[in-house]
């Protein structure tokens, strides 16, 4: 019985990890969500306007820390932020829903929940975009969470 539960769990995880499929609006066909990052003819360039490594000092446990990273599309094609993946479940990321046109700026936001995270915390946001050179960026922040004294 235990091995059946483990097998079902593994099958469920495998299926979930392989189900990131998007549907092309024009043709109605499905394609892997990563394909757009592989087409180098659609690459542009990005400039991060804020430091990729930030220190927010100290906050009290239970507070939510809001972070934002500004960027600019310095290329000639629309910049698509395909996804932003936080390094853990205590951080929720928000990415632009629309492409950023050449010359325009955008922002990636995140919210860190400090509940039960007393001590030094170093978190990352992994950004995937259609950019030349690399399509993956790591934005990092650190914050020290102080235990409430009540």
Explain what you see.
A hairpin with a 6-residue loop joins strand 9 and strand 10. This protein is mainly beta. The N and C termini lie far apart (47 Å). The chain contains two helices and ten strands, in the order H-E-E-H-E-E-E-E-E-E-E-E. The model is unreliable at 3-35 (pLDDT under 50). It is 13% helix and 45% strand.
Defining traits:
45% strand; mainly beta; Immunoglobulin-like; 13% helix; four-stranded mixed β-sheet; four-stranded antiparallel β-sheet; 2 helices; 10 strands; 150 residues
Layout of secondary structure:
Blueprint lengths: L1 H16 L3 E3 L6 E3 L2 H4 L7 E3 L4 E8 L3 E10 L7 E6 L4 E4 L10 E9 L5 E11 L6 E11 L4
Largest sheet geometry: 4 strands, antiparallel
What value does the Rg take, in angstroms?
19 Å
- What's the tally of helices? 2
Topology as a string of helices (H) and strands (E):
HEEHEEEEEEEE
Strand order of the largest sheet: 3-5-8-7
CATH superfamily descriptor: Immunoglobulins
**Mean pLDDT across all residues, rounded?**
82
General shape: elongated
Per CATH, what is the topology? Immunoglobulin-like
Task: Summarize, please.
This protein is mainly beta.
């Amino acid at each position: 019985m235990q091995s059946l539960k483990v097998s079902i769990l593994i099958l469920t995880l495998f299926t979930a990890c392989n189900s990131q499929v998007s549907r092309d609006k024009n043709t109605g066909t499905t394609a892997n969500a990563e394909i757009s990052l592989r087409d180098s003819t659609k690459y542009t360039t990005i400039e991060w306007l804020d430091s990729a490594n930030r220190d927010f000092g100290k906050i009290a446990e239970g507070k939510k820390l809001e972070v934002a990273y500004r960027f600019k599309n310095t290329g000639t094609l629309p910049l698509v932020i395909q996804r932003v993946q936080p390094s853990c479940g205590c951080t929720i990321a928000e990415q632009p829903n629309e492409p950023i046109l050449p010359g325009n700026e955008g922002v990636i936001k995140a919210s860190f929940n400090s509940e039960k995270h007393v001590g030094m915390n170093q978190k990352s946001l992994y950004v995937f975009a259609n950019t030349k050179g690399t399509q993956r960026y790591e934005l990092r922040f650190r914050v020290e969470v102080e235990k409430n004294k009540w």
